[in-house]
Amino acid sequence: MLASELPEIRRIEFENAFYAAEGDWIESLLVISESTFDPEAALASLSRVELFYSERISDDESDQQAYRLTVVAHEPYPFLLGLILREKAIPNRLVLTPDGFNGVATVAEWDDFQRLADKLQEQFGEFELLSVNQVETTGAPLGSGQLGRVVRNELSRDQLNVLQTAHELGYFETPRRASAEDIATELDIAQSTLSERLRLAENQLFDLIFSGDQDTNETG
Q1: What is the structure's pLDDT at 192?
Q2: Mean pLDDT of 198-204
Q3: Cβ(84)–Cβ(91) under 8 Å?
Q4: Which residues have C-beta within 8 Å of that of residue 177, sequence separation ≥ 6?
Q5: Cα distance between the two ends of the chain
Q6: How far apart, in whole angstroms, are the C-alpha atoms of residue 28 and residue 12?
Q7: Residue 58 — pLDDT band, cuts 50, 70, 90?
Q8: What is the DSSP letter of 144?
Q9: How far is 29 from 16, CA to CA, in rounded Å?
Q10: Model pTM greater than 0.85?
Q11: 150: Cβ–Cβ under 8 A, 6 or more apart, which residues?
Q12: What is the pLDDT confidence band of residue 189, given thresholds at 50, 70 and 90?
């Protein structure tokens, strides 16, 4: 979609993506273009995509211009990524170029890959296998890119520390592996302080994710 709006784009790479709620995905994209452009204006005509954050990461003298965009995509399964996830494959790299999509994915068994290949062929009409490697590990999955940096810039040190500790101890798992008391002990703070920091951190995080929902609902 974005590539059709900006014909001078060389490639769009999915750096990160995670499910937010009710069919919304938050996606981090690295966009390489032949010239500078206004991300907000470029995305304005796309009804199912909202720009959340943008950063130009190249200088004026660069041959190519690089932008990092964080967008909210209103779709249950985002395009090629959704197909890969539904077939229980691990997406390692997804890049859109003028010639089409190039991707790297990890599957557990050869039969899993064959099912994925059949689905790709069926949905997109053309699929070419470039190489196959047998590996001991899955490699870095899509999601280990730069999206977390945006969140880290918005939350305070205390908020990040509480969320990270709660996550590492299993507080958000079902069933929980750690209690609020466990986290407070680990951080050496009172439970009342923990509750306040955790509540503020969660509220700030949800504000980041859903900041545009109210305006969208009112104008829709």
Answers
A1: 92
A2: 82
A3: yes
A4: 169, 170, 171
A5: 22
A6: 10
A7: confident
A8: -
A9: 7
A10: no
A11: 28, 52, 53, 70, 208
A12: very high
